[in-house]
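Side project, low priority. Logging it here so it doesn't get lost.
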Amino acid sequence: MLIDAPDNFNSDVQTPSPQTVPEWNAPIVTPLPLKPVIPSQTTSLPRLTQEADRIAAKQAWKYFERNWNPQTGLVNSVDNLPWTTWWDQGSALLGIHAAYQLGLLPQDVFQKRMNTLLETLEKLPLPPSGLPNKAYSTRTGEMRQLNDTPDPNGISGWSVLDMARFLLGLHVMRSHYPEYSDRINRIVARWNLSKLVKDGWLNGAIPRAGKLLEVQEGRLGYEQYAAHSLKLWNIQATNALSNPPVKTVQVDGISLQVDRRNLKNSGATNYLTNDPYLLWGLEMGWTDAVRPQVQNLFKVQLQRFKRTGILTAVNEDSLDRLPYFLYYSVYANGQSWQAVNTSGKAYPQLRFVSTKAAFSWFALMPDDSYTKRLRDFAQNLSDKNRGYFSGRYENTKLGINTSVDINTNAIVLESLLYQARGRHPLVLEDMSQGRQQK
C-alpha cells in the first residue's frame, strides 16, 4: 500500500509496483485566467542559522521541485507517482508554506503554486457524498482509487483523518496569507463537512458491496490530532477529544496510553507511533494533557536504544520494497515494537529508523543528546536530486530505506520552520501569539 495516511479501514488492494510507473514528463503550463494574488509581505521572515539546517531545507525542497504538477498544483505522494491522498496534500501545503517562509522559493513562484492549487480545488470533482474522494490523480485532478485505478464515480469513500490534515494545511494558508482566506473558505464551503463527525466521533466511509459504509475512524493519537485539526474549522468531535477508550500498558517498564480498540475487536490496529504526536507538537503545540504521553513515548525509544544499541525512532512510513508501507509502533495489537501493514501482518525484519521522526524530535526537544544523535544520523539520508529518503532499516544488511515521499520531505521542512520560528507551532499566524514549548 502506498497510502501515506493512517486509514484504519483499508480494503485489500494491490499497490502498483514502483518499477511499473512510467517516467514523469512535466505537462505544458498554460496561463491562469485568474487575477494573480500577491502573498502577504512579512516584515521579518524566519531564518535558519545553522548551515546543516540550510542544507537540509534545500535538500527536502528538491522533492517538491521534482513532484509538483503544474497543471493541478498537486504534489505527488511518492516520487514520480502521479497520485495522492488528502493527508499527503496537507503535508504538501505545509511543506510549501515552510519553504516560502524559509526563503526557498520566490514570492512569484509561491503565488503561482497557490493559485494553481486553488483553481484545481475550485473545480475538484466530488462524489455524491459531497466530500473529496480518498485519492486523486495529481496530473488531471480526477478521482482515483487507493490502488491508483480510475474512480469516476467516487466509490472509494472518504478518510476523516486525511481530510483533517488537509484542513489544517488550508487553515495555515488562510491565516498566514489572508489574501487567500475568502477563496479557501469558499472552496471548503462546497464540502459536506458535517459528515466528518458522527455522534462526537470521527467518521469516515469505506466501500462495501457497491455502497459506502460509514465507520468510526482513528485510534488514540491520530484520533486526537485529527480532532484538534478539525476544531480549527469549528468542527467538534467531542468524544474523540474527551472520551477515547484507552488503557495503560507497560512497554519496557514505561507506562503508555493505548487505544482499547485493536485489530481483533474492531478491525483496525491501535498503532502507537510517533507521527501524530510529532505533528501535533510541530503544528498546533502539545496540550498539557498529552504531554506525559509524549514524554513517555520518547523515553521508551531512548531506553530501547540504551538497552539494545539500536537507534530507535518509530513511525508510519513508505518502504522501498513489499509491502511498501508499514506502521512501526512502540505498541500495536497487544505487542511492543511491532512493524505491521494495514492488515495487521507483522514484518519485524523491516523495522526502520524514520527520517521525519528524527528531524521532528530534534526540533521539538533540541537540548536532548539523543534527539541530536537522531538528527545527525538523518542529516545525509538523502538523494541529491530527489530529496530525503524515508529512513534506514534497523537491519544493517538492508541499509537505507530508499523510498522518497511527500510526508518525509514536508515534515523535514516543517521541523526546520518550527526551529526558525523560535519553536512556535506552525498554526500561529503571528509568532508573538505563541508560547515557546519547554
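Brief comment: The mean pLDDT is 90.
Revisit when time allows.
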